[in-house]
Amino acid sequence: MKEIRAKIVASVEKLFGRKQFKALKDLLCTMEPVDIADVLSGKPPAERVFLFRLLPKDLAIDVFEFLEGTEREELLSSFTDAEAAAVIEEMSDDDRTALFDELPAKTVKKLLFHLSPEERKIANTLLNYPEDSAGHIMTTEFIDLDETLTASGALDTIRETASKKETIYTAFVVDEERRLKGTVRLEDIILASPDAPVSGLMDEHPVFTSTETDREEAAGTMSKYDLQAMPVLDREHRLVGILTFDDILDVVQEEATEDFERMAGISPVEESYMDAGVLTLTRKRFTWLLVCIVTQVFSSFILENYAFALESVVALAFFIPLLIDTGGNTGTQSATLVIRGLTTGELSGDDVKKVISKELVLGLLLGGTLGALAALRALTMGTGYGVVLTVGISVVAVVSLGNLVGSLMPFAARKFGIDPAIMSGPFITTVVDIIGLLVYFEVARRLLGLG
Amino acid sequence: MKEIRAKIVASVEKLFGRKQFKALKDLLCTMEPVDIADVLSGKPPAERVFLFRLLPKDLAIDVFEFLEGTEREELLSSFTDAEAAAVIEEMSDDDRTALFDELPAKTVKKLLFHLSPEERKIANTLLNYPEDSAGHIMTTEFIDLDETLTASGALDTIRETASKKETIYTAFVVDEERRLKGTVRLEDIILASPDAPVSGLMDEHPVFTSTETDREEAAGTMSKYDLQAMPVLDREHRLVGILTFDDILDVVQEEATEDFERMAGISPVEESYMDAGVLTLTRKRFTWLLVCIVTQVFSSFILENYAFALESVVALAFFIPLLIDTGGNTGTQSATLVIRGLTTGELSGDDVKKVISKELVLGLLLGGTLGALAALRALTMGTGYGVVLTVGISVVAVVSLGNLVGSLMPFAARKFGIDPAIMSGPFITTVVDIIGLLVYFEVARRLLGLG
């Protein structure tokens, strides 16, 4: 299928080059909005605006919703006020919230002014929800049905309003106070006899979320129950919006990327990598690297204290990298498995004892094998049995410790209400390093009779 | 909503404890299948079987599809042949494929024997597709419509077969050879006049994937186009199955978890963490740790070579952990950002030059700041200007190098057709360590006039 898409893109380029704009418009109208957005992304700003203006209004808005942050900002700034107003008025409200999140406050203020009072109210309501909440990413464009309707009445309502709705495959039954009574699938409405009351077709205990719920948790709920659409309720249990499956996919991907970055010690970067400036990226990565340096104060202090050991037996220095790396890597491995388990819901706080005991056993197995190999290496270097034993014992200790620390810290974080993914690689690595070095030199001191 | 679910679960426990099985069955019938599966998971095997048998057949099969691997195996082994046959015959075919993947080959053979010839053919066809392909995870339970149908004819077909289909919200129009002609949304069928030909309502250039396509790529395509369902075609372009949005969510989560594990140097673990035995986990983590040890041969070799420098100026040893950790962490940071960018499609192979230049600048900025701080630390320890300068320069070099190596290697992997996520933390760390140590000691040698 990539070849088909590639051919179409090549045709677009050809027609554009030949200024055959009528044919180009016709071709664009056969393309998927996201593919048109891809083509526009690759173009310089002036050409992008031109191509965008070729598109019929509805298609243009769909394409606009697929463009990236900076591209949308550029397009808006080259539009007339009337053009900009038309686009944002017609956008789906959840994509509009995402757009406003990306734009500078001044621009948002100006655009809000151009909205109709109705849309402005919706836009403001959504924007005011906390940024990582379900309320912030929901849409208000859902089908709500009165609880007294029959199947045929429901179908009429659906037919009349379908074009303005995010989805019609799940409909939401509400009372006069707009409180959620149940959800009903389009499938069931179609398969029912026309007189069947909708209240008899609906799920009276639907899965739902709240406006205040964290979006990652809401995504987890939708994913757990395989929901195509999920109602979002306010504090009075009124239906105020819905989340749909495509929102969830985006949330899952973004949250996974954030966790990846945290694990590597990067404060999550909001813009895409290519959009983010060098200074922003430096700042985001600097924090944890600074923590590294600060804790290195401890490691250099330890080594300074044991300088006498290094001066007596310089071979002790040969294995410091091995100790540092092995402890850090194994700690990161344990932490990764536990953090990922906690995030996907596979592990819960109750599992901590089982996990710790598993990790300790693993630590001894891995540490034992690696320690034996490291000791063997020391032996082949002719360092003498004292060093060989020291290296072997220390590796076992460091690996076991790494496992313990790496698996324990995410649970501890969760206990204190912090996101376990905060327990990053650099942090765990330095904790394990410090303890590992102490163990190494204390073992060396005793076995080699130093100091 | 968690409180509501918790209350229901408490009621289940209460009724079970009081042996009020009729009331318990009624309660279970009001619950979501995935919640019933959660309750069963927490129970010892004997009770689990008992509770499972309480459920009416259709609900039982839905619940079965939500249980974990080992639980399903246990249940099946406690069923009579007739019970087991009933469950697997009625299961949706894609969940059955997943089940067979988890079971030992002997059990699968036995179960296949119990299937009707029709279902056995489907089961075998799906099983034979490569394990990570779209074909392996697709379902054959889709609505196919003849291209000559009208909207009302289509609706009749849908009504008749809906109960056996994975989804009815997207229907697939095929010709007599079962080649895909287009896809049509239920929404459009409903909104059309009854006589409208389906061929006029359909998308004639639908987005599709192939049975051989990697499932992660297929998931990316569905995600990109926000598809609720996507057709899967064989080599002759015949429609053989579909993927639905809930499959994709699972794939995205599993692939993210695999990438996390690879980044930490763990060969992906197929079972869930709690199910995996200690020996399996050891083996999966051992591979990369072994690579660590092997490359440590080089680092200990380097240090042995520069033993003279360490003997002359023992303070050089104090900063080895700092160098090792900083280089490793920064390399992992760069690699994480690039790998994640390549995986989510945000970065492509063409971006390599832009990324490398960005990373080099970042390396110098970060390295410069960190190097200054490290040099300051060395100064406060009274190590003398030679060491201070050596530390400062080496940190700058190691951080820049770490960035370069960390960002370059995923691109290189992709170039050679390997998954960029293979470029794990341990691997990059050791490469950066080795080069970093060489730089450190060579700078030291010259600045301090050693050897």
UniProtKB/TrEMBL annotation, chains A, B:
InterPro entries: CBS_dom, CBS_dom_sf, Mg_transptr_MgtE_intracell_dom, MgtE_N_sf, MgtE_transporter, SLC41_membr_dom, SLC41_membr_dom_sf. GO terms for molecular function: magnesium ion transmembrane transporter activity; metal ion binding. SMART domains: CBS (SM00116), MgtE_N (SM00924). Keywords: CBS domain, Cell membrane, Magnesium, Membrane, Metal-binding, Transmembrane, Transmembrane helix, Transport. Homodimer. Acts as a magnesium transporter. Belongs to the SLC41A transporter family. PANTHER family: MAGNESIUM TRANSPORTER MGTE. This is Magnesium transporter MgtE. It comes from Aminivibrio pyruvatiphilus.
